[in-house]
Amino acid sequence: MQNPPHAASRADGPAGSQGAGTSISARAMGALRPDAAAYLEGLNPEQRRAVETTEGPVLVLAGAGTGKTRVLTTRIAHLIATNRARPYDILAVTFTNKAAREMKHRIGALIGPAGEGMPWLGTFHAIGTKILRRHAELVGLKSDFTILGTDDQLRLMKQVILDQNVDEKRWPARALSHAIDGWKNRGLGPEQVPAGEAQAFAFGKGAALYTAYQARLATLNAVDFGDLLLLCLKLWRENPDILQTYQSRFRYILVDEYQDTNVAQYLWLRLLAQGHRNVACVGDDDQSIYGWRGAEVDNILRFEHDFPGAVVVRLERNYRSTGHILAAASGLIARNEGRLGKTLRTDDEPGERVTVTGAWDSEEEARQIAEAIERLQGKKHPLSEIAVLVRISAQMREIEDRFVQLGLPYRVIGGPRFYERAEIRDALAYLRVTANPADDLAFERIVNTPKRGLGDATLQQLHAYARAERVPLLLAARRLCETDELKPRVRSTLRALTESFSRWARSVETQPHSEVAQTILEESGYTEMWQKDRSADAAGRLENLKEFVRSMEEFPDLAGFLEHVSLVMEASEAEGAERVSLMTLHAAKGLEFDTVFLPGWEDGLFPNQRALDESGRAGLEEERRLAHVGLTRARKRAKLSFAVNRRIHGLWSSTIPSRFIDELPEASVDVVEAPAHFSAGASRFGRNPAPFGSSYGTPGWQRAQAAISGRGFGASAGGGRSGGPSGGPRQIEGELVAKSTGSPSAFQGGQRVFHTKFGPGTVAGVDGNKLTVDFDKAGRKMVLDSFLQPG
DNA sequence: TTTCCCTCGTTTTTT
DNA sequence: ACGAGGGAAA
């Protein structure tokens, strides 16, 4: 394999017309290729260069919508098709399981089943796990180690903090967890933490806590996510021979989303890449939005320095967005200083300009968005091609409320993950103890779930015994039941539990694991617990449990299932329905939609004040990249908006439009103004609307009304259901201006009424001029009678 | 052991 | 405003 048949001369493929310096034979050879390689067709010259520069380090700077995934998958197909590598010679790492799955899928489509068997295509963590299982004993583990999720991690930290006599009030487990995660992200083991930082935590106990935490993990035969990479580094550093086998095994290395790598991942890659040095990293420094969780933009900025002789390919031709959208995004991101610099361009038409709309408050903003969506819907715009991207999840509530009122179908992307739901984690804990009786953390989670009278006191006894005898909790429980240490009632409950676990463990040997799971959930009383629960979401939880058991069937055995779960914490998404998507900007990375709404462009919210406070200019630049990501999600329409008043932590505060709005290139932006114009004089977008400075407060609703009707401020562009006729008295949420006047109402219970916002309904109760109305669509609301008409 | 109340925090999220 | 989690009372 030293001389592959089609050894590429240099980067210039046949498409590169810079023939100078390319040998005749090479060109002749290239001329053959288009036939031989259908998969290369349709690639532009830069993409092709990124695919065909197979030898040596390559950095592909792939702007948004420039065909990044295509390059990555084609490159793999190319390596295999030209016999440069077999599927198992290639290491391809991604960040998310979703990305890994998609890549597998697309490679399969390109080269057929040959791509199915890429054993080393996966997330950093999945590959790290695979490697660690093979050499577990060399890093002090057994090969069936468990991978702890965040909740287990936290519980462990709490124990460690307690053990070390640190005040848990002052140094909460979360903070320790944060610190340790940070160290692990930077590739630092307990001994390598800089003394200063270790000192800073808990009066110098930082290092001791870290060490103790690792020791606890080791005794539990468990690792956390950080360890999956960190322990690989340790393994390789201490065993050069093993490192070398991996270095020579991976002839070609590919990395997706390189801008998101942290230091540990970078070190991990660098060690592996030192073998063949054929490492291709694909990323976009302008889409680095995970700095807060350890991603180092520096990794991508430093690539040429770290891999001397690297070829850098820029993909700047955008196939996604229209001209104005691209211009807006480019103009914005150009304000960042720490970037390698790319200029996206498109051959597409200029299209619609990016719109900017102001609203009086966040509720009106939500109303405007919903109306705009309904208008689009009226023009046959598919809802699945519309997305609303928010900066923080708290923004979603009002928008959802509005959608619910209108009966507009939507889905929230990136909500609580399936495997993170309490009922699923509980069920998992039962399975974990069944599969591995030494899994103390899982045991602790469910000893008293459902409630069976085994509380703290009992647990303390178990712990004491377990620690003294150096046995797992379950075994400790079993032994203590044989003594008179426990109160009779506790003893019998505990004995029943331990016996159940023994029984379940036995049945795993003989029965299908999903059936065992079903049995466990029933016999333990867990299902019953939710059946008795009267809260609203109990039914959903039971549904989830069913789905959980069903999903187990896809795996060959219990161990396989548990491994999958610990690495793949994502929701099973019901695809396909015709719905608007609602998500955070972070969750939107990698997705695209025809129309994208971007609400909440207000200073303090976006750019987020906290990001600014904590990371200064770097924070601002990351926020700006986030804005850039948001804009570049749109294919045809991007609609920005801001509200001048927003409720923050329950308090109404006035806000000013985001500085990012003023950074957009004017030529690509349309300001959608209310009929009577929204601000005279001030800057282009009505920055700092004079009459309501920061002094605006809750009692000011009178002023608010005056301002709105007087200036037409933020009146919805399309009229429609939210506002009265323009110029007339504006309606604000009935609740907000609700002031009981005491004057008797013209309405009576049972009467049919109509409300401009909520539609038709029936009066359920009367209190002065405040009415309780059961609306046909919106449910029960308190409204003022002045907003109602007899129906 | 359980239940109720009070305090605290509240960007973004993967594995 | 609001929910989660911890501590004190039943």
Automatic annotation (TrEMBL):
It comes from Methylobacterium gregans. GO terms for molecular function: 3'-5' DNA helicase activity; ATP binding; DNA binding; hydrolase activity. The keyword DNA-binding applies. It catalyses: Couples ATP hydrolysis with the unwinding of duplex DNA by translocating in the 3'-5' direction; ATP + H2O = ADP + phosphate + H(+). PANTHER family: ATP-DEPENDENT DNA HELICASE SRS2, UVRD / RECB / PCRA DNA HELICASE FAMILY MEMBER. Keywords: ATP-binding, DNA-binding, Helicase, Hydrolase, Isomerase, Nucleotide-binding. Has both ATPase and helicase activities. Unwinds DNA duplexes with 3' to 5' polarity with respect to the bound strand and initiates unwinding most effectively when a single-stranded region is present. Involved in the post-incision events of nucleotide excision repair and methyl-directed mismatch repair. This is DNA 3'-5' helicase. It holds the Pfam family UvrD_C. Residues 711-727 have a biased composition (Gly residues). Residues 41-322 form the UvrD-like helicase ATP-binding domain. Belongs to the helicase family. UvrD subfamily. Residues 1-22, 711-732 are annotated as: Disordered. One of its GO terms (biological process) is recombinational repair. The gene is uvrD. One of its GO terms (cellular component) is cytosol.
